[in-house]
Amino acid sequence: MAVGYSREDKSYKQLPFTNELFLSLTHFAYRRKPLVSWVASKIDALMNLNSRSRYLAAVVAILVSVAAAQIEPAEQQTVAAPVPYASLSQVTSLLAQLEQQSQATQIDLAKLRIDRWKTDSTSKRQAQSNVESVTRNLHDALPGIMGELRAAPESLVSTFKLYRNLDALYDVLGSVVESTGAFGSKDEFQKLANDLTAIEGSRRSFADRMETLAGTKEVELTKLRTQIHSAQQASVPTTTKKVVVDDTDTPKKPVKKAVPKPPSASNKPAAGAPAPATPPKTQ
Fold it and tell me: What is the pTM of this model?
């Protein structure tokens, strides 16, 4: 059964801000479905009352549907390319190991007797708060994150989300192990130290896998860019100059003949005037 938050839970004042906030938000993210189910049960109760209550129930149902529609898309997986067998086998093995480590850590944390530690009440409350935060994350948040990665083994986002969660768990659990070594029994300390070492190993394994996935995605992106560039170059039309030769005979224009002008009146001899005498030829 999942452990809920209470008004007396002061863990946000005890843990480091970044990791405790991450654990709390992750814990809340995977506890949304029970909220929707609870509202749905209230709607069923309202539907048995008067018409006004039925109207209110219809409005609430619409709001819940919208909220559920905003929550569920993250769980819907799109059809992706087939995952290579080697990659799938590696993810399956890492997740199986992490699941066993989580169960063992929860058992060891439940066996802690912090109330018997020889220390002040403030240190006991802080240690108990850290234990509760780690337990909530291992029980509520971690299985959902592992399920996302199991559904999409080569998702870089899901891999990083799991790595980030393990990183936060390692820091908070490390504080618990340190306190147990100082105030708890030797047996408790040894078991939790082994759990911390196992989680550290999983964190490194997923960090290595994340680096490998990033390199693979970069190579795929480079190939895709090259293909797009080649396709763009092939689609650009080549501009060629076309020379048109016109070998048809063009008809010649007719040449107009010059018409002689008639002599003007000033050049004509006067009527009755004697013709000019021709000079005699010399022998």
Answer: 0.56
Q: What phi, psi does 84 have (nearest 5°)?
A: -60, 145
**Residue linked to tokens 């990083």:** 160
Contact 170, 196 (CB under 8 A): yes
Q: Supply the pLDDT for residue 144.
A: 96
Residue 273 and residue 176: Cα distance in Å, rounded?
154
Q: Which two tokens stand for residue 33?
A: 């479905």
Average pLDDT of span 190-195 = 96
Report the candidate in 132, 159, 133, 164 with the shortest Cα–Cα distance to residue 146. 159
Q: Give the model's pLDDT for residue 217.
A: 86
Residues 6+ apart with CB under 8 A from 200: 170
List, for residues 252-281, the tens digit of each pLDDT value: 666 666 666 666 555 555 555 555 556 555
pLDDT over 70 percentage in the chain: 55
For 84-234, which CATH superfamily applies?
Alpha-catenin/vinculin-like (1.20.120.230)
Check if the beta carbon of residue 19 is closer than 8 Å to that of residue 168: yes
